[in-house]
Amino acid sequence: MLVAALDRTYRATHFHKPVHMSSSKEHGQEEQPLNWNARLKIAIGSARGLAYLHHDCSPAIVHRNIKSSNILLDASLEPHVSDFGLAKFLVDDESHVREDATEKITKREKTAFYDEYLHSGQVTAKSDVYSFGVLLLELVTGKRPTDASFVMKGLHIVGWMNTLMGENRLEEIVDRNCDNMDVESVEAILDIASMCTSAEPEKRPTMKRVLQMLEEVMSPCPSDFYESHSE
Fold this sequence. Notes:
The radius of gyration is 17 Å and the shape is globular. By secondary structure, the chain is mainly alpha-helical. 39% of the residues lie in helices and 8% in strands. It is found in: Membrane. Keywords: ATP-binding, Kinase, Nucleotide-binding, Phosphoprotein, Receptor, Serine/threonine-protein kinase, Transferase. It comes from Acorus calamus (Sweet flag).
């Protein structure tokens, strides 16, 4: 598994606010905001880790706690999926995790899969996909999932993104401190995040497909993403 055992790490939780979406200070230097290429690198590396857990491990593993603070970055900004304290093996032909009826969900466990667990008593790989979609939104916006700017309006980061996208207000979504953003790739990433955070788990893509789409965005021609997705 991709548990990071690193002498030197940077936590993605430092990226929650735009001013902290940055590389670390060294030798008195000021923090520099991460540019768009660095954020894409974090996105695709994190997706690769999750795809490994879901599709290459036997039995497959559901992480159940994917969030920015559990993605560790090394000195080269290579992401490593960490904290497997809540991870479970996928079991039976339905590919879901069944919890013991006496198991209690603590505040620490109230991540993206929480509502699905309460509704069905099950957590699937698609719960990790939802969490990854939220991570993508954090990378694009530089905001926490519960940032006060939209929580005060009764929204969370997914509802806020859907509202602004529906009103074609892209410029209000992106982190203004992020350099080298191009509209085409940002829109592609937001489309992937939207698919990952669909309210209907069966409509979410697999992590294998998410990784493929991200690789297409990283290709020399991001429009390849739209061509392949329309097929």
